[in-house]
Predict the structure.
Amino acid sequence: MIRLLDDLTINKIAAGEVVEGPYSIVKELVENAIDAGSSSITVEIKEGGKKYIRVTDNGIGIPEDDVEKAFLRHATSKIEKIKDLNSIQSLGFRGEALASIAAVAQVEMITKTQEQQYGVTIELNGGRLIGKKPIGCPTGTTIIVNNLFFNTPARLKFMKTTQGETSRITEIITRLALSKPNVAFRYVNNNNVMFTTLGDGNLSATILSVLQDVWLKSMINIDDEMNNLKIEGFIGQPSLYRGNRNYEIVFINGRYVKSKIISQAIELAYKEKLPINKYPICVLNLTIDPSYVDVNVHPMKTEVKFNDESDINNSIQKIISRGLSTRITIPELKVSP
Ligand code: ADP
Ligand code: MG
């Protein structure tokens, strides 16, 4: 007999795609906080996020009437029609993160909009609504995710060690913080503050806060344009090479991406300058007309497709090469603690 699955089951299955582990929850929640226009975001985790993840923002909040809707599948305030996909400015748009996360964890959300006098707190357990009541709180949203995969034992077993999950979370928060220098991030792990950023819009100050400070002194500022592609950020001098691609950090229109095309282009520019099997470091934001790039290829949204790959490849390579040949390093910078 063929049956239609109920919503709880559908969300639990879909969570397999969106919620790979604690780090993907952190990514989705922080992206929501960014989309909500927050200027300050705090992420707190315990035991690698396996037991506890809390993301607090000072963004626009969710109107009381929408609070339950936010946890429904394909519920989003960010796009209305398929044609909006060609001009996406927000990081989220699929409307499946909260539904998926709630399906496989115990979730509490506290939220208030500017207009409302009181906020609301809502609790869900494995996607089931447990309770909802008014609460006094500041404008913004806090989401707490407890006991990830408590109801999917098979997934529970596949989580990494606490240390392994923590380092994935650190990596994703580092990238998100670098992608938004105008947002003040605070990252707390087991009550230890791992880093804070100032949120003053200064990328070099943000690099200094989250990456190794010695690097910044040997980085070259890029601010260049070619064929409708604008690239801003920093590239390391060839002497700063690494054994892997972990520090080839690239954003497209403020969205963190992993792209073979882009890595290849960057590495080609460094080709003669690096030992074999070594990789450059960089923090670069590419500004491209959203209609030239498709971000809707994967639920995690870190992969992208370009309309014209060879054109992109060419422009990136030229701009990086130009940067490497000018070698104007940025002046030394003092940042208050
Ligand atoms: P998406 O981000 O793709 O729209 P989500 O499931 O992540 O889907 O979130 C659903 C909706 O809940 C969002 O469209 C937004 O309206 C609301 N929302 C989620 N998180 C926040 C937040 N931190 N601040 C304000 N609104 C939020
Ligand atoms: Mg989202």
